[in-house]
Amino acid sequence: MKIAHVLRRISFADWGGTEQVVWNLAKAQARAGHAVRIFATDALCKVPREEREGLEIVRFPCIYPWWPMPRRVADALDRKGGNPFVPGLGKALRGWKPDVIHCHAMGRIAELCIRTAEATGAKSVISLHGGAANVPVAEATELRAPTRHRLPWGKLAETALRWKRRVPEGADGIVCVGEDEAEHWKKRHPRVLWLPNGVDVVRFGGQSSAVDCSRLQSNGKPFRVLCVARIDRQKDQMALVEALGRNPSMHLCLVGPVTQPDYKAELEARARDLGAAERLAFAGPYPADSAELAAEYRAADAFALASRHEPFGIAVLEAWAAGVPVAASTAGGLGRLLEAHPGAALPFAPGDAAGLDAALLRIATDAEWRASAVAAGQAAAREYGWGSLAEKLGAFYGSLRK
Question: Of the candidates 326, 370, 369, which has an alpha carbon nearest to the alpha carbon of residue 348?
Fold first, then answer.
């Protein structure tokens, strides 16, 4: 089978969850004998064509259809949001003639993929990675902020092209990372697959469950808390920075690309106000499959993810695989993941400072719970291997009718 994966961007120097999912699924499909190629825009990476680990990646310049469009606004849209036209993408897909066009973006890119699949007889699949069924209003408003008060000439172009705005309903199949989102779309589309994110258990390895953690109230050994997520208000790293002020032995490492530079500045300023700047570190983003990321997990005493909105929470799988005790919010699909594996993590409600502190304190002081949770987490991680997920996805491709 020839499979084309299409996504908004893929930059190995500026990695995110969607890129990680697509990359690992594509590698697993290629190992299974399929012909796989990745198509993307050149957002954050201007290399037009490259090959890594036997997979070819082709990138195309994109056009954000608002006027005026200064470079600083285009740069912001490259990092988060944006709904570009991608000249050349459709022609490249038609030339390669895939059996499946699997799109991991929405908007105009997805519409182009659906139209190209119809023209070539390919099956079209849209993956929903961002939890669009339950994105908070404030976050949706923030995504649209860079284009506010600009002329949206793209709508005129869509009218001229007779585009129908049928995303994702017009695709032959819909794949959802979040279970709640899958339930939402099953009411509106006959072919929907819930496919959670995966993890490379071998890569992250498992550390000992007998981590010697000091009490959060002590002035002894630092209690090292890790959060792996893009620096973005959605992920609510501010909740973790606030915890630094309440817990003087806590050290916090934030790993991930900066999608909102102003938010990073707010985190740094708040840490200074709390007298905790020396206990806050930013690391990464690390390239895909980097040894540095696995090393960050091995150095951590606890992993914390305080997201206000989360379709799944792939970093929790990584922490489980690495044998790191986990405290995580119950936001969206992340809450579903924690419910599916009781005893593997300590949940707390989004924005619940007392719940976060209680979870970190138990990780630091309850050795018996810690050992049990680490074992449960490592067992849970083994259920999410990329190979088995790729098999489920392949079966879903085969079930689609043209």
Answer: 326
Contact, 195 vs 155, CB < 8 A? no
> pLDDT digits over 134-174, tens only?
555 566 566 667 888 899 999 899 999 888 878 999 999 99
Print the domain residue range for 50.
2-198+385-399
Taking alpha carbons only, the member of 176, 198, 195 closest to residue 318 is: 198
pTM, entire model: 0.84
How far apart CA 392 and CA 350 sit, in angstroms, is 32
Write the CB contacts of 183 (distance below 8 Å, at least 6 apart in sequence).
none
The CA distance from 23 to 38, in Å, is 9
Q: What total of structural domains would you count in the chain?
A: 2
For 95, 329, 373, the CA distances from 369, given in Å and listed in that order, are: 56, 19, 6
Would you state the pLDDT for residue 115? 95
| CA separation for the pair 62, 167 (Å, rounded) | 19
Contact 243, 272 (CB under 8 A): no
Q: Which residues of the chain have pLDDT under 70?
A: 131-144, 206-220, 288, 402
Residues 218 and 333 occupy one common structural domain: yes
CB atoms within 10 A of CB 162: 7
Query: Which pair of tokens denotes residue 75?
Result: 């740069």
Does 213 share its domain with 88? no
Assign residue 131 a region (left: φ > 0; alpha: ψ between -120 and 50; beta: otherwise): left
